[in-house]
Amino acid sequence: MAEICRLGVLISGSGTNLENIARKIEEGRLPARIAVVISDREEAYGLVRARKHGLQAVFVDPGSFPDRVSYDRELIRILRENEVDLVVLAGYMRLVSPEFVEAFRNRIMNIHPALLPSFPGTSGVADALAYGVKVTGVTVHFVDEGLDTGPIILQEAVPVLPGDDVESLHQRIHEVEYRLYPEAIRLFCRGRLRVEGRRVAVLEEEESR
Ligand code: GRF
Description:
By secondary structure, this protein is α/β, with parallel strands linked by helices. It has 2 domains: about 1-105, Rossmann fold, CATH 3.40.50.170; about 110-140 and about 150-209, Rossmann fold (3-Layer(aba) Sandwich). The chain is built from 6 helices and 9 strands. The strands form 2 sheets. It has a 7-stranded mixed sheet, with helices on both faces. The protein starts with a strand and ends in a 7-residue tail after the last strand. About 40% of the residues are buried. Bound molecules: 5-O-phosphono-beta-D-ribofuranosylamine (GRF). 5-O-phosphono-beta-D-ribofuranosylamine binds near residues 14, 16, 17, 111 and 112.
């Protein structure tokens, strides 16, 4: 790994997790650098947030590629050109191809707004609420070929309160995300995560040397 951990952040939407990570880095609380931000949606507000923080931010149009594989090849090219150590999916709404997973095996993270393996997919908050669970939460995991199925790095529970709607619950989930995602990235960048089959061991500082 390069001296400072280089991140490539993939987004599709608002990008508050991206901005939170950028802020933590600026405040010197996360020893990493965002080398590039890529969006698959031109109107993603995360692109505006990224540029506000002086980051290189690009829109790559899925419409200009014949299929997912060729689109992902372009992303792999950009991420490699920027010497990215870790790919951070932050509200990226596309399923990445097996080739993409292979290119960055155990170096792609995702954050999901539920306690996996419950409520995978794009509406984890609404699905948990509709099911009537009393506790949901946040999962940070490595990305494999499945949908939200990769080895789990960190999880934290969030209670569902009486009267919650999707917005209020998602807001409290977001607060937890803003702590958990930088923490998982920090552990990765310090070499403290070891994938052993489905399990991710979090090593003590001295074990990682
Ligand atoms: C987050 O809740 C994350 O868990 C999910 O998408 C949402 C992205 O939010 N994958 P934002 O774009 O970072 O605000």
